[in-house]
Each structure stands twice: as C-alpha cells, then as structure tokens.
Amino acid sequence: MRLLAVSALVEGRDRVEVAALFKVSVRAVDNWWAKWQAGGRDALLSRPRGRRVGEHQVLSEAEQAAVRQAILDHTPSGLGLSGQLWTRGLTGELIFKLYGIRFTEPGVGEYLKRWGLTLRRPDKRAVEQDPEAVRAWREETWPVIRARAKAEKGEVLFADQVGIRSDQVTGRTWGVKGRTPVVRRTGNRFSVNAMSAISMRGRMHFVVFTESFDAKVMCRFLARLVGHFDRKVHLVVDRHPAHRSKTVRTWLADHKDEIELHFLPSYSPEPNPDEVVNADLKRSLPHTHRARNQAELAAETRRFFHRRQRQPHIVRGHFGGRHVRYILNE
To answer: How much of the chain exceeds pLDDT 90, in percent?
Structure first.
C-alpha cells in the first residue's frame, strides 16, 4: 500500500486525494513520501515488530551452547539429576544447577526450540554393547564377508529368532473420546517361536515351531535353508548360545561347503535387518484374527511369513533402515 501511495504521488496526484484513496491520514502519506525520498523503496518495506531473535536473552550464547551439548552428550542421571530422558523440567534443573537461573517449563521449551531440539523417541542400547566392536563389524568384518560371498558366487542372509505371545498388546483402534475401547481375547497364555532369514534380493525363509529354541531347532532350520540353494550360504546371526553350541558346530563341519555362520557383535541387534522382520511380525499380527489357542497363533504367524515371501519389495525395504544401510554400501 505504501508503494502504491508513493507511486500515485509520483504521478502527480494530490496528497489529500491519495490519503482519501487509501483511507489513511494525510500525515501518514507525508511520512511515506519523506521515507521514500530519504531511502527509496527499501525504506517503505515492513519491518518485524518487537525484539530481535536472541535479543535480551537471560543465558549467553556460550551458556546456551553448553546446555545444548550437555543434553546431546549425556543423560540426566549422568549429570547428577534423575532419570534417563530429558524433559523441559529436567533441562530447567540443569540450567539452575549450572548457572543458578530458574526458568518456567514454557521458557525452557522456547530455548529447546531455538536450539533445534525436538522430542524424539530414543533408540535403546544394551550397556554391555561395545561400540568399537560394532564399528569394526560394519567397516571391517562385513566387507570381508561380502567380498568372500561374491567371489564364491554365494548367497548372504541375515537370520534371527523371535517369540510371539498370546497376551502381547500392540497397535491402536478407533473409539469414542474419553472411553477406552475393549478388545476381547482369550485369557489363556501361550506362545510360538519362529526363525527367519532374509537376503538383500528380497528372499525370505522361515520356520515356525512351538518348542523352545535350541541347537536341534537351529540344525533343522539350517538343513531347510541349504535345501533352497544350489550355492554356498553365508548366514549372519547373533551370538545366541544355540548358534554356537557343539551340536551346531558339528553339523556345520559336515556341511562346510554348503553353509557358514558369521556372528554379529555381542548385545548388538541393530546391525541385523531381520530384527526389522520381527518388529513387522509383532506389529502385523494384532490386525489379523486374534488367536484363541497355540495352533491358531502358529497358523497366523505362518500366514504372515507366507505373505511377506510374496512381497519381496517389502523384504528389500528392511535393508533401508539407518542402522542396516551399511549392508548395501559398496
């Protein structure tokens, strides 16, 4: 509007006429004309009102940087506070502990927003996990396995076992606000187990069983697995005792030209893409018919794996997560 008003004055219109046209005072028109003559078009542009961002902040830039880095590098308990997760209240306690300044939770929230921090669901890590061993697996061990399999024209698969319980509660459903929906299910407790293996090509192999997972089940799974391939299989698994048992080692010695096991670092499920299959299974089962006995639960589990076998694009997608993307990097 200011630019249009000045344009009208430049064209020779009277200042009173321009004020009436734009429904402003003559004094306002005079001010716009003076600003235009002094600074041109830029002088007429709107400026944000209020204090500038960062102006008159209680914490200095150095203090803010220190608090932000402390949140990123430590847990509250690691800095003498309570809990493992940062909240606005605990962040305020940290600021008071460091600088003796009290903030309200909304005030702390403004600082967190300014620092580019958002409330995120954290990944879980075992305290026994060795980060150096995980790094060595990704950068040193895995490339050697991949190169060997390629040279032998073999197949690499990642495997893991999972247990499914009848009383597992996952997922959500729609309901009336303020009233919790009710889902009827059996009060009996039962479970089944499964072991699966997936390849980067989208292949999936599995076995569902009701007994406990042990060396005999592992050998049965290995025998079924090698029966599907006419080349050597390199199978990546975790360090479950059954995988490293004497029975399994003896079986592998008799089939060393058909299959070989490679072990992930201890307490490190993240580098295994088959863990994503386990999560997919537990997330998908509640959306199908609720099993009333062990046989129905086993049947539902098999249906899930059969469905995924017909969806290789989904299986390949399990290798795209940030923790397992290293597998695809040449």
So the answer is: 60
Closest alpha carbon to 290 in 187, 162, 195, 193:
187
Q: Return the DSSP state at 272.
A: -
Q: What is the pLDDT of residues 284-314, one digit of tens each?
A: 886 666 778 899 999 999 999 999 999 999 9
More confident residue, 279 or 290: 279
Burial class (CB within 10 angstroms; exposed 0-12, middle 13-18, buried 19+) of 130? middle
Strands (E), the chain: 155-165, 191-199, 204-209, 233-237, 259-263
- What gap in Å lies between CA 146 and CA 326, rounded to an integer? 11
Burial 263-278 (b: 16+ CB within 10 A, else e): ebbebbbbbbbbbbbb
Name the CA dihedral angle for 262, 264, 269, 272, rounded to a multiple of 10 degrees: -50
Report the distance separating Cα 268 and Cα 125, nearest Å: 8
Print burial letters for 21-54: b (CB count within 10 Å at least 16), e (below 16).
ebebeeeebeebbebbeeeeeeebeeeeeeeeee
How many residues comprise the chain? 330
The count of other CB atoms within 10 Å of the CB of residue 324 is 19
Find residue 207's DSSP bridge partners: 195
pLDDT band at 188 (very low <50, low <70, confident <90, very high): confident
Structure tokens at 209: 């069983």
Q: What are phi and psi of 176, to 5 degrees?
A: -75, 140
Q: How confident is the model at residue 152 (pLDDT cuts 50, 70, 90)?
A: very high
